[in-house]
Write a structure and sequence with these properties.
single chain; alpha/beta; UDP-N-acetylmuramoyl-L-alanine:D-glutamate ligase; 8 helices; kinase activity; transferase; PfkB_Carbo_kinase; Ribokinase-like; kinase
Length: 290
């Protein structure tokens, strides 16, 4: 039995520390050592949930390449259960430029999946049946698998997704929102339309995240509630993965019986603490469990 099954979202992050964002125009810029490590959204949710004590499974495609080896090695250092299929196009990767305040600019290489579905519907259904919660990353192959994932949910089990910087109009994201009970979405492109977009996703529970400004909880049949961000317990080092840690914290709290508002406040603490670590491989005891 799994507490959380994460669908998709494995990759590597190529992290570069830069003096300022946006970067000034120049032919070159000397920076501290550039690192290659596990990253991307599914890894962020899975590793944070694992650090919070959940039993986690992860299903995805992954390249048989050096970048994929970095991901496999990182996951082998945990008890996360993986079901992986080789990705002919290679491992997804992001180039993340991070400034001294921890803000980032990410260049994303999705390595699109091509060919027949990587997992049979029966295999996905069986995996979903073992989980108390399912979180689906907005990966290309997972989009076609949404009906099978939804059909495999046991009674009382919820499905969540993170739409990231959705603009409220891009049709690619809509099936993920339609399949979910719990939706995370950034307000970076929604702006003052965020409330209207969240209301349009009812009766789903929607968390509109605003980075250091906190988040807004849109729960069924209740007015929106602002959830302030939490002050990090140490200096901010890296905000990569903060949103994924927020999602993991909220899922963990809900699985432990917390209501939506209390779960969101706890998730804010988890996300704030995640920002004090360089990377997503959280050491034991770093993220708050209560």
């Amino acid at each position: 039995m799994l507490d959380l099954l994460v669908i998709g979202g494995l990759g590597v992050d190529i992290r570069a520390q830069v003096p300022v964002l946006p970067l000034p125009a120049a032919d070159s810029l000397a920076v501290p050592p550039i690192e290659l490590r596990i990253g991307n959204t599914g890894a962020g949710v899975a590793l944070a949930a694992h650090a919070l004590g959940l039993r986690v499974g992860l299903v995805d495609v992954l390249g048989a390449d050096p970048a994929g080896d970095v991901v496999r090695a990182a996951l082998a250092r945990t008890s996360v259960r993986t079901v992986l299929v080789d990705a002919p196009a290679g491992t997804r990767r992001s180039v993340n430029m991070v400034d001294p305040a921890g803000r980032r600019m990410s260049l994303y290489d999705p390595r699109p999946w091509s060919g027949p579905p990587p997992f049979a519907e029966a295999e996905l259904t069986a995996l979903v049946r073992e989980a108390a919660h399912v979180h689906v990353s907005i990966m290309d192959w997972a989009r076609a698998a949404l009906p099978a994932l939804r059909a495999g949910l046991a009674d009382g089990v919820s499905l969540s997704t993170d739409l990231h910087d959705w603009d409220g109009e891009n049709d690619y994201h809509r099936p993920f929102a339609d399949a979910a009970d719990l939706v995370f979405v950034s307000d970076v492109r929604l702006g003052d339309r965020a409330g209207k977009v969240a209301a349009g996703l009812a009766p789903r529970t929607v968390l509109v995240t605003s980075g250091a400004a906190g988040s807004t909880l849109h729960a069924p049949d209740t007015p929106p509630v602002r959830v302030p961000a939490t002050t990090p317990p140490a200096p901010v080092v890296d905000t990569n993965g903060a949103g994924d840690a927020f999602a993991a914290g909220l899922i963990a709290a809900r699985l432990r019986g917390a209501g939506p508002h209390d779960a969101a406040r706890y998730a804010a603490r988890v996300a704030a603490t995640a920002c004090t670590l360089d990377g997503m491989e959280y050491p034991a005891g770093l993220l708050p469990r209560d």
